[in-house]
């Protein structure tokens, strides 16, 4: 798996989320109703807050936001 450490980490996290049954989507294609559990990557927050690494939706309802630890 090539790329920068952050890209590799995202690819692995996306793979693990999908293996756990989440539908992983980009913000551009986000549809919180496409399946029971949806995760969108690089989700924009309010201006001063920046971007969340992942936003989770369950049955179309916002359920949480996750930030990756910056270990690279």
DSSP strand content? 35-45%
Strand order of the largest sheet: 1-2-3-4
Q: Percentage of helical residues?
A: 10-25%
List how many beta strands DSSP finds: 4
Query: How many DSSP H or I helices?
Result: 1
Cα radius of gyration in angstroms: 12 Å
Q: Structural class, judged by helices and strands? A: alpha+beta
Q: Span from first to last CA?
A: 15 Å
Mean pLDDT: 86
The main pleated sheet reads as:
4 strands, mixed
Order of helices and strands: HEEEE
Overall outline: globular
Unreliable stretches (pLDDT < 50, length at least 5) are none
Describe the overall structure.
The protein has one helix and four strands; from the N terminus they run αββββ. By secondary structure, the protein is an alpha+beta fold. Strands 1-2-3-4 form a four-stranded mixed β-sheet, with helices on one face. The chain is globular, with a radius of gyration of 12 Å.
How would you summarize this macromolecular structure in one to three sentences?
This protein is α+β, with helices and mostly antiparallel strands. The protein is built from one helix and four strands; from the N terminus they run H-E-E-E-E.
Summarize the topology.
Blueprint: H1 5-19, E1 23-26, E2 37-44, E3 51-58, E4 61-66
Parallel strand pairs: 1-2
Antiparallel strand pairs: 2-3, 3-4
Task: From the structure above, extract its key features.
21% helix; single chain; alpha+beta; 72 residues; 4 strands
């Amino acid at each position: 798996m090539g790329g920068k450490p952050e890209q590799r980490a995202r690819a692995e996290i996306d793979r693990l989320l999908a293996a756990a049954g989440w539908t992983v989507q980009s913000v551009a294609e986000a549809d919180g109703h496409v399946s029971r559990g949806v995760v969108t990557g690089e989700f924009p927050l309010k201006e001063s807050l920046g971007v969340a690494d992942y936003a989770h939706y369950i049955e179309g309802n916002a359920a949480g936001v996750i930030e990756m630890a910056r270990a690279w």
